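@channel sequence for tomorrow's demo:
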Amino acid sequence: MSIRNQIGAALVFAAGTFCAAQIASADHHAKSGTFEVITSGIADLKTVEFFDYSATAGSAEGTSTIVASTGGPFIVGESSIYSGVIYAKKSAAGIDLEGPGVTTDSSGDKWFWVARRKAGDQETGGGGAGRQEIVGGTGKYEGITGSCEYKIDYLTGNRIIAQTSCEWEGN
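structure tokens (generated this afternoon):
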């Protein structure tokens, strides 16, 4: 083999190794990341005064849109629908709220989450900050877990809006 062919073979090998490393690096990035989502919807809640606390239960449904993302299955501009249930106990000590739910994108893939909050209220003009855990999913979200910080506002007409920032990782 001539020196010219040896150099050519070495360059092809080096280019192939570089491309493989870049692909492996891209795959690594696709297994974790961050995203931000804005959700808006309607809450259908019922509150009962009970001894020294109030209990609230109901549902919430609406839409969400990814407004920022580092990549992976959470795509900027993608809109989805969400549905969840809410249970909250409010006393002089504060609020203890939990709400499991599901977000379904336009292809039918779902990611499941549980929102929890220990601050604020559920009154018009109120709201508060909390944490949301991503606990799995289907399709492109299968194996995804993560944690999020959110802030929700309760508007007139049972409307709600939330801003959420998440970190996620996959299997």
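heads up for whoever presents: The chain has two domains: 1-30, 33-169.
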